[in-house]
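Record type: ASSEMBLY
Status: queued
Input:
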Amino acid sequence: MSQSQPLTADQPRPPRAKADPAGSPFPEQSHTTVSGRPIKPLYSAADSAGPHEEVDDERPGQYPFKRGVHATMYRGRLWTMRQFAGFGTPRQTNERFKFLIEKGQTGLSTAFDLPTLMGLDSDSPRATGEVGRLGVALDTLNDMLALFEGINLEQASVSMTINAPAIIVMAFYLAAAEERGFDWRKLSGTIQNDILKEFHAQNEFVFPPEPSVRLACDVIEFCARNVPRWNPVSISGYHIREAGSTAAQELAFTLADGFHYVDQCVARGIAVDDFAPRLSFFFNSHNDLFEEVAKYRAARVLWAETLRNRYGARNEASWKLRCHAQTAGCSLHDKQPELNLIRVAYQALAAVLGGCQSLHTNSMDEALSLPSEHAVTLALRTQQVLAYETGVTNTADPLGGSYFVEALTNELKADATKYFERIAAAGGMIAATEAGFFRREIAEAAFAYQREVDARRKLIVGVNAFVEPDEEPLEVRNVDIQVEKEQIAALQNVRARASKTEIQSCLDDVRRAAATNQNLVEVIIAAAKVRASVEQIMNALADVFGRHEAKIA
Amino acid sequence: MENPNRQRIVLAKVGLDGHDRGIKVVARGLRDAGFHVIYAGIWQSPEAVVRAVADEDADWLGLSLLSGAHMTLVPRVMELLRSAGLGDVQVLVGGIIPEQDVAALKQLGVAQVFGPGTTIDEIGHFLRERPNRSHPAPAESTAKGDRNTLSRLVSAAARGESPDTNRLPAGTAAPHVIAVTGGGGVGKSTLIGKLIEVIRAAGRKVAVLACDPRSPITGGALLGDRIRMPSRPDDDSLFIRSLATPSGQSGVAPHVDRMVDLFGRFEYDTVIVETVGAGQGDTAIRDVADVVCVLVQPETGDELQWEKAGQLEIADIVVVHKADLPSAEYVESQIREHLNLPGCRPVPIVRVSSSKSIGVPELWDAIEEALESHGSRGTM
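Status: finished
Output:
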């Protein structure tokens, strides 16, 4: 039966096994994107016309930046190859950083361990078994100094993935830079500092939503004034997608988070053009190539239009949505793990065709453990092959004007706009967050996808199709349990030498400032300098803000 | 009638890792496959997980870990299960577990490890193929105050059995039964969570029966109320049981009266019953409760939910929940108007915000007052 003769009601459905002898062995496979979006067999000019039909006028580097934020895109400047790294003690991660720089990596990206992400010290009882495991442990300013030892912070572009305690880690970084004689105005890099998506998706929150957002905005405000080349927030859809959202949800929720930060900063009286140019984004790059490309394009248009029209931004830099992308960790599998290399390569292609400014490619062994050096090297080489061999960098927005991609771009824009309306109807960002709106939407999408996979309407090679019966397990690396002991010993050594009275007095200042509207960065830098630990400062903040319990499934 | 062989599984994430996509998908999938799933949430300590298994009389415990801390946390859970007399509960582990650790976990007694790419059907098949947990017959072990005995007796009562309670101590007089009812999303579990703190501070021993709907088609249920209540694993005077409740008009699981009697024999003086909250006139709750608290919340729409529900007729106390919302005052005045009809008994209205911790002690005072004025239903 050919595609052009669809089944009608009076034709008996042929038995499944004989459905299409020349076609797919998986007749149930659905023609939808990985997000469940139905896709037509063919797209033509009628599908791709935007509401204003101004496609011809659109140029990369010009408002609304659908075709890219720079006029020449990668011809002018290649994306930054930024591999996320971090494990064990600060000294071990410092060695990994130096290894990556030697291999040609152009930006550093720091992963912290779970205790640090949750604002706990390495000797907290809740940290047992988790110290240095998924990232590097950070307790005091000494750890920050060790982490970047020998690296010129005025030359390196440093990214730090941290959220609930972001203000503390930023303060540690600034204190470390100052101690080493670097000028804050010359520092460049990014701190993730996006707490809203933690409530929606990743569950690494500590304080309730409102004070959490206040802390994020304190960092944005402080950096706008004192660290002008720094990106003080990386508004992240990555984790929303990893939690199982659709592409449209990732797009909508991320931008809605971004608009909320803008609202809050504007409400403080900061002019939008004084901070918006430094707001950066972080998106997922998943399997569905064309839908992903459309997502990046739609994101740029929605951001530019909203910043210009709703917030009245006049600086072009405020309109530009610059983004980091990371290939989808949730798409990786432990069956036939070498296949992950191939998945990552296509996902990286999607991010580059979508016009990202920096990119992390996952290592093939990440569904098994922390990546080995071999796997990390291959992941970086994947980007280098893409950048230097495939020719995709020769022209800006190579898919622009494709009927299909333009149609998808419009659809995603429309889907996101509908979500913005639903968020507003739920009482705005904080009310919708507290009511669990985002969590429910994401959980429903995740479940729907799993159902598709289980029914083999969505195929995963090596998992529910083309399965290999016997597989050799990949070699995986393990974090030495010595790390926990070493890190605790180092922390206790710092504690023994620090002045308890100085620390207490700085923590009192933190509490006092937290109870007012004063920006907290400066008082936390002071606490960092006298070697107050991450957990001590978190506890001082919690004394004022309270803690947010995980009470919504 | 409830299938007596229905398997109950507690799902939880231990440690700091908050990646809950997998466990939430498994929870929904197992519900649809007909299991009774009790979801205990993220950030659970090994102690809290074991307490949930004990109170829920679970056949299975499923732990999800993506943090790499499994070789620290899973052995701890296994050890605590054994020392709590729950060594016969079978344990599943899901997440990113390297090959060599899978063998080590099985050595510790873990029944199976499920990695990425596992289908829900595989997990369901595995659970069905294994024999049910071999609960010792409740009457054989009647040591006074033993939590596991109580838990098994509650299960037997939930199945409609009349366990031989002759060998149990007489316990206290019939416990006070407080029902918390109201429409879906009104915050019943959260409020009960706050009430527990107040009741425990008053030195009372409290049991909670949290009713959640059971699918009329598959018989499965996803029981998630306890996630909003404090876990307090060291507190032996708090017992929380989730009950899969058939759809229908009652809003409460069958045989609550038998369970209340059991709690009395184990010296619980207060039992809180949370109804399904589908919004029907939950008249069945009137028959088992001494005091019925009906929760309403400020609405964003035009229609007031409580008017449709007709629940105010059974209320001893009306709680305007989420009272920090701006329209709380308006809703309260509407209710007051509705209740002030001639011939109606006076019903106290209490404004509570669980999220802002406002009004909870006042609600408890109102409940105590209502208990005194109505008297108990008397001993059974």
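Annotation: Chain A has 21 helices and nine strands.
Annotation: The mean pLDDT of chain A is 92.
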